[in-house]
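Structure (tokenized):
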């Protein structure tokens, strides 16, 4: 049995639903709905919320309003946002410059641990993709802009199958050496298991400090929470997740997408690990966007809480009706 006393006391959750989640939705989400979702996420206590991506609208139409979203975030009440960071994805220097011009104060870059995945998605090798980030890191350093690095396909690739931890470590190390303050390890197709997760972190932690690593799990095979627990046992304290489980995986048919933030917070609460997030308010945020998308909430925890609320409201309503009838009989 693991020693629960060795688990971290506090964890940082990086909310990726607004960017990574919504970008895969077929229903076009208006700017005002995205901003309202972000506001609700802020109210829940989340301190890091990926706001958008400065990729070409041609490739990701859902995020074509990146400038409008950033403008509204800059205009939010300081009392609401002074403690919140809104990183954005910037695939190249042009995207970086556009993001900074729009008011972004933190960015993220993506690389893959799979050569096939890199070639098929961005038409270049892993090495070439990282070299493309060099001007971003240099410019970011000049402007004192933090850069977060992502590594995709860390536990499996839709084209190559299993990916060795050695390959992941090489990519993660390069991003770290370039200047990434944090490296998020993404199980893009959700094939990881706790054992593989531990082995991966053991290897990568030899070249990147564990406190500088984050995990980003998809729940395709229902292993995301188990994988997160395994990561917590390794001392990891940074977790990517998506409210209401937003975001299906385009590379695995039927994949359920990102692990739901509500489910992660419930797990952390059960382990007495602090996240500073109000679960009820988080559920409200997930319920809001799920209703807009007219789809079932992807969080089991959220569905349970919403069901309990509904039953409780029904009981209270029945009780009030009963009391009213009794009063009518008395008078």
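Design, position by position:
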């Amino acid at each position: 049995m693991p020693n629960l006393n060795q688990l971290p006391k506090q964890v940082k959750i990086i909310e990726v639903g607004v960017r990574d989640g919504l970008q895969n939705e077929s229903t076009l989400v208006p700017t005002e709905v995205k901003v309202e979702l972000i506001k609700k996420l802020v109210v829940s206590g989340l301190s890091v919320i990926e706001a958008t991506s400065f990729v070409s609208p041609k490739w990701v139409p859902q995020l074509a309003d990146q400038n409008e979203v950033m403008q509204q975030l800059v205009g939010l009440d300081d009392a609401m946002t002074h403690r919140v960071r809104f990183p954005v994805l910037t695939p190249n220097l042009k995207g970086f410059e556009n993001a900074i011009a729009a008011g972004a104060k933190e960015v993220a870059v993506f690389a893959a641990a799979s050569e096939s995945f890199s070639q098929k998605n961005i038409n270049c090798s892993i090495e070439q993709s990282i070299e493309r980030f060099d001007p971003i890191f240099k410019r970011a350093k000049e402007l004192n802009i933090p850069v977060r690095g992502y590594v995709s396909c860390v536990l499996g690739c839709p084209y190559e199958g299993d990916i060795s931890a050695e390959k992941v470590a090489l990519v993660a190390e390069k991003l770290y050496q370039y200047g990434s303050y944090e490296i998020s390890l993404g199980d893009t197709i959700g094939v990881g298991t706790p054992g593989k997760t531990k082995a991966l972190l053991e290897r990568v932690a030899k070249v990147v400090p564990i406190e500088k690593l984050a995990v980003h799990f998809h729940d395709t095979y229902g292993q995301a929470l188990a994988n997160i627990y395994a990561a917590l046992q390794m001392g990891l304290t940074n977790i990517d997740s998506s409210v209401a489980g937003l975001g299906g995986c385009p590379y695995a048919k039927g994949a359920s997408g990102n692990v739901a933030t509500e489910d992660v917070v419930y797990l952390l609460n059960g382990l007495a690990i602090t996240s500073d997030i109000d679960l009820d308010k988080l559920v409200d945020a997930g319920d809001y966007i799920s209703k807009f998308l007219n789809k079932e909430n992807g969080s089991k925890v959220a569905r349970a809480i919403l069901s309990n609320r509904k039953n409780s409201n029904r009981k209270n309503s029945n009780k009030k009706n009963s009391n009213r009838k009794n009063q009518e009989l008395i008078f």
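Reviewer-requested clarification: The chain is about 45% helix and 10% strand. The radius of gyration is 21 Å.
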